[in-house]
Amino acid sequence: MRKISIFGATGSIGQNTIDLIRRAPGDYDTVALTGGGNIARLAADAIELRADVAVTAFPNRLDDLRAALAGSDVEAAAGPEALLEAAARPADWVMSAIIGAAGLAPGLKALEQGATLALANKESLVCAGQLLLNTARQHNARILPVDSEHSAVFQGMVGEKIDEVERIIITASGGAFRDWPLEDLPKASLAQASSHPNWDMGQRITIDSASMFNKALEVIETREFFGVSPSQIEVLVHPESLVHALVGFRDGALMAHVGAPDMRHAIGYALHWPERRDLPVARLDLALAGQLNFRAPEQARYPALRLAWQVMERGGMMGAVFNAAKERALDHFIAGQCRFTDMADTVAAVLEHMEAQSSLIDAAMTLDNVSQVDHLARKGADDVLKQRAG
Ligand code: NAD
Ligand code: MG
Fold this sequence. Notes:
By secondary structure, the protein is an alpha/beta fold. The protein has three domains: 144 residues, NAD(P)-binding Rossmann-like Domain (Rossmann fold, 3-Layer(aba) Sandwich); 140 residues, no CATH class; 75 residues, RNA polymerase sigma factor, region 2, helix turn helix motif (Rna Polymerase Sigma Factor, Chain: A, Orthogonal Bundle), CATH 1.10.1740. It is 47% helix and 15% strand. It has 17 helices and eleven strands. The strands form two sheets. Strands 4-3-2-1-5-6-7 form a seven-stranded parallel sheet, sandwiched between helices. It is globular and about 55 Å long. The termini are far apart. The relative contact order is 0.11. The site of nicotinamide-adenine-dinucleotide (NAD) has 25 residues, from helix 1, helix 6 and helix 9.
């Protein structure tokens, strides 16, 4: 039996992971499940999968979790320290599906104990790519991509050499506003930004798809994970979301990964790697799909994309600045405190402000330094938004 843990078990990726585990309960021994405020879901899944421990990220919910687990053998724990303690418990395979920079520290802990880290939490690669990769190397641990585009590229690379790759193209649906008149974007509501044309995901990543901040994070994730240069990465708008990514080789060949938009494919590939097993995903009928459309992303509609290249060119810990400023701007948008288009403007302003601060941005990439940069960038975003509102 393989020992597994799922961080962010109550979220969209976490629930899709549990769906796969539930289909073969005899194959897995669950060590830890973690969640946030959805205590009922966390407790029910922990009891069903007979986890050793269930952890809520919120310290003030420990009593609720204890009550929900009463009568079972599952241990209850709460708070950031408890998340780290759970990540240090030996496991063969750990799903990293917490949302945001909060996923970084538990991911590092899991790598330190040698677990294979199935990485949905793209933010950890964006904030601290070299730290994560070095930690994996030092502890002989493996990171497997779970983001659909990166899983697609990873699959396209099987049996290939990275130096024979000329370019990597990741696709984007274009999000909720891909066909809106540009002048309407400032008026986009939270509900409108929270509905995705093709994928069923958590609210934050769905809004990030409408703004293309999600794709901007994925461009940086591509650079970090595959070690290619920024000029080798391209983004293509593909409204059908059936082609997830393409790898272009030096001889001009393009290998595309095609499949239904269902995250259980990428999760299942990471779960069973290096084998392939049956997965409960829809089989594509391309005759029924009929057409696959592609177009270049419009710069004016998706300013976040340009910022990704700015971040990669500056290097250092600008990824942590970018992600943190984006997370704060998104908090403000969700709280109804800024307009949809203010998010990209805010992140651009924070990047500009912090770019020149070499002692900060070029310091050694340690967890402490990343946290410090993250903290300052969040504060910077708050200041910019306050100014704009005032
Ligand atoms: P979600 O919002 O549905 O779930 C997030 C999970 O993280 C929940 O379990 C929540 O309780 C937990 N969490 C939230 N804040 C936390 C904190 N501060 N500390 C600890 N735990 C916390 O998110 P999701 O859509 O499942 O996305 C999870 C990750 O996977 C993200 O990094 C996202 O970018 C990535 N991803 C998601 C999809 C998708 O289809 N949803 C696709 C590709 C990549
Ligand atoms: Mg993706």
